[in-house]
């Protein structure tokens, strides 16, 4: 089928969270955009604390911003109309069309399902009318049948919009054939009929050894496997789900130092970490080795400690104290060793936090309808008070004469700051700088290449790493673009593109068989 005639939509679902849905959607979008197809991404409902701000001041999931970039588009709230940002195990902030409208639990969300279905349906219909192709991403797994009644992003969306569904499984986790088969088998017949094929992700080794299993999967389900994507170590930027942010694990694939010494970074893995992708810009820099940390001893040898954002600042501050990390941070500050706080991490570094907003999403730490007051770490002369509405905006500014850009997403307002401002944002003083301690509300700041290199040089001086030198030409934007192109290359090389085109254009085949698990017979070779 020619690119000019390709029109339609596809839903990419996954056997599990972090199966590769986001990167597969980004890769398909990039591949189609390179062919001249007008393509847009769509995720009806996302649950993530990694978000970005669109040009019009709305929030969407980080993955949809990356997918928009793959399509050559600016991020838009249209691409992710419903976003849930967990503030505790039971409650999440609900963001609709980019705007926070309150906090919800499971039962609250259930009562809103019809309203949210209408929002999702309207946005998808609008995108399909404007673009040739819309590639949709599911959420979690469609096999979560206990949630089927309220599902907006998986088979609920597929059924409502008559979308063919491609199911992705991560073979690196093991059991992928069972996952793919079982995902189809537990669904009701009407849902099964839209499951049109499979895609295996993160394969290592000889595909010919896997092929007999794929053939048997087709025999059992009547559905083809459209491709087997190889494991690619280079793909790590914008890891939205943060499942890889386990304490002790490295961030990214650090390149060798430009100078004679490494600069080591410990990023604190907060329980309610938000916008963990801020850390990734540091890991793009050659000679900067970044690891996640959740205990005091992991901070001891690091040249720089970063406290990232949090969706529940006071709760995570109490966790720091429980772990003894607060003592380690004070010891670092007393010794003049570098610390950076971003957004919630910045607020924790201050003297006092008055929270009449976020704590309502975590009732375990406060009484409802009462502002909660907490002492900060006292490492900066900062007082914070939370208030509505949430600040969500893209920003530009300078640090000295160095240009910078980023975005803000926070309820906290600075009511007092006894330290010099670190930055100037849109002509207004922002952040704090005290000796080797820095803090800011701005996310994405470290993606400003010239600023990042200059600041890391200052960090290295404070840390006594005289042999560390920044590489002169590292570009986070260029690395992100290269990863998108690699994704598109993998799709082009390892996916049956004519079959994928037919699925997008013609929809699910009408003869998809229904699997009845009680009557499945294994072949003699496998029994």
From TrEMBL:
Positions annotated as active site in the UniProt record: 343 (nucleophile), 443
Pfam families in the record: CbiA, GATase_3
Domain CobQ/CobB/MinD/ParA nucleotide binding: 11-236
SUPFAM superfamilies: Class I glutamine amidotransferase-like, P-loop containing nucleoside triphosphate hydrolases
Source species, domain of life: Bacteria
Pathways per UniProt: Cofactor biosynthesis; adenosylcobalamin biosynthesis
Family: Belongs to the CobB/CobQ family. CobQ subfamily.
Protein name, per record: Cobyric acid synthase
Protein source organism: Nocardia rhizosphaerihabitans
